[in-house]
UniProtKB/TrEMBL annotation:
Gene3D superfamilies: Vaccinia Virus protein VP39 (3.40.50.150)
Listed GO biological process terms: methylation
CDD domains, per the entry: AdoMet_MTases (cd02440)
Lineage, broadest ranks: Eukaryota, Viridiplantae, Streptophyta, Embryophyta, Tracheophyta
PANTHER family in UniProt: 2-METHOXY-6-POLYPRENYL-1,4-BENZOQUINOL METHYLASE, MITOCHONDRIAL, METHYLTRANSFERASE
Single GO MF descriptor: methyltransferase activity
Keyword check for Methyltransferase: yes
Organism: Quillaja saponaria (Soap bark tree)
Alphabetic keyword roster: Methyltransferase, Transferase
Pfam families referenced in this protein's UniProt entry, alphabetically: Ubie_methyltran
Top-level taxon in the UniProt lineage: Eukaryota
Protein name: 2-phytyl-1,4-beta-naphthoquinone methyltransferase, chloroplastic
């Protein structure tokens, strides 16, 4: 496995390594390690990622950061002293760590955002690396993974081969790096497609994942999000935190609706709105009868074929038991 670096703000370093306090240097492949050390000055020009909305005070991890170009960019977003000159040897809010991407030395849920540029393709166990990313990412936060794209489109794949054979490798020859870029070409050929990356992220526990093809499909950016899990009756947010709140088909299933509404009110900013969408329990007999008929004659029979009849019978009863849309019920 290749050794790599991690970058993050150093404002609270003592809190970071609580449960996994170790800086474990993993050496592999001296050849691969030497490859990235030799190629760093040339390779830096390729790396310019989005910062995932990183803001002042956030803790951001740049995984497999190489020579640190993205880390410097992120440092400007989360640092406390404004922009710095890249001429400085190191930004003061960055901590450089060499460790193992398969066993990150950070506590669970520490980072507000994680980026990885041109690294996942070179990790031996991609599933385990993604699980580690998920573990150290805060709930509600995102990871952005940029790399060369392995396209399903024959024309794009052919174009990628042509770019390497006719431009990249010949240009690299002048720097004595031809063999190194041939490795890049083969590593792209063996990489996961965007569709497989999305499936991998969802399988290991991310709640959403989307792969974006950029630069005509030559590059790809996987963005995955870790959702917040909690109790609607005891929301894990501070008072007045949200500018808006939505709830779709959820209030009907909450045991204590009054308490849930009070929690929504508590975490909503003054002057803001909440929108709650659900099936309607109508005061109109004809509408109520129509709803019953739709479930009895269409929804439940159709659900039987999928083995979901009991679940949709629950839906029907939950609507019947749902409160009326009246302010008096609140």
């Amino acid at each position: 496995m290749a050794s790599f670096q991690l970058s993050l703000p150093s404002s609270s370093t003592s809190q970071i390594l609580s449960s996994r306090l170790r800086y474990k240097v993993v050496r592999c492949g001296s050849e691969r390690q030497a490859l990235f050390r030799r190629i760093a000055p040339v390779y830096d020009n390729l790396s310019d990622l989005l910062s995932l909305g990183a803001k002042m005070g956030d803790h951001v991890l740049d995984l497999c950061c190489g020579s640190g170009d993205l880390a410097f960019l992120l440092s400007e977003k989360v640092g406390s002293s404004g922009k710095h000159s890249l001429a400085k040897s190191c930004f003061m809010n960055i901590k450089w760590v060499e460790g193992d991407a398969l066993d990150l030395p950070f506590s669970d849920g520490y980072f507000d955002a994680i980026t990885m540029g041109y690294g996942l393709r070179n990790v031996v166990n991609k599933r385990r690396a993604m699980k580690e990313i998920l573990r150290v990412l805060k709930a509600g936060s995102r990871v952005s993974i940029l790399d060369f794209n392995k396209s399903n489109e024959p024309l794009t794949a052919l174009l990628m081969e042509g770019v390497f054979d006719n431009f990249v490798i010949p240009a690299a020859t002048g720097y004595g790096l031809a063999e190194k870029y041939r490795y890049f070409k083969s590593s792209i050929r063996e990489f996961l497609t965007g569709e497989r990356l999305e499936k991998l992220a969802l399988q290991i526990g991310f709640s959403s994942a989307r792969h974006y093809e950029i630069i005509g499909g030559l590059m790809g950016n996987l963005v995955a999000k870790k959702w917040v899990e909690g109790d609607a009756l005891d929301l894990p947010f501070s008072d007045g935190y949200f500018d808006a709140i939505t709830m779709g088909y959820g209030l009907r299933n909450v045991v204590n609706k009054r308490r849930a509404m009070k929690e929504i009110l508590r975490v909503l900013k003054a002057g803001s709105r909440v929108s709650i969408l659900d099936f309607n329990k109508s005061n109109e007999p004809l509408t109520a009868l129509l709803m019953e008929g739709v479930f009895d004659n269409f929804v439940i029979p159709a659900a039987i074929g999928y083995g979901l009849a009991e679940k949709y019978r629950y839906f029907k009863s939950s609507i019947r038991d749902h409160w009326l849309s009246s302010i008096n019920d609140l």
